[in-house]
Amino acid sequence: MPPRSTRPVDKFDDDDYPAYTMGRAAEMLGTTPAFLRALGEHRLITPLRSEGGHRRYSRYQLRIAARARELVDQGTPIDAACRIVILEDQLEEAQRINEELRAHGTTS
Question: For the HTH merR-type domain, which residue ranges apply (predicted)?
Fold first, then answer.
């Protein structure tokens, strides 16, 4: 039986594919390009650059930016909102790793 060919991964199904321009990302989030630039300055998200040098955002980055916007809309200063989102993301990743370890019986 010949090996089954796999369908190439659709880039738009990839959470990390930088599919969105700054303008489109800002529109989707209901915010301004300046807000997205500020998130970059605070190192919350680092957009990839197109060949022409334009910022491009992934769906994952937009989810992160949306969470930061929620916090800012609630009155949290942007620098604190960025730190909170980073810590939330790190906690979620640590919990995911712990669950995987538990599922494989490798924890004590």
Answer: 19-87
User: In the chain, helix, strand, coil percent, each to 5?
Assistant: 55, 5, 35
**pLDDT tens-digit series, residues 65-88:** 999 999 999 999 999 999 999 999
What token pair was written down for 8?
Answer: 């190439």
How far is it, in rounded angstroms, from Cα 68 to Cα 86?
Answer: 10
Q: How far apart are the C-alpha atoms of 21 and 19, rounded to whole Å?
A: 7
Residue 28 is given by DSSP the state H
Could you give the domains of the chain? 15-103 (1.10.1660.10)
| Token output for 84 | 């909170």
Listed residue (50, 51, 48) closest to 16, CA to CA:
48
pTM as predicted: 0.77
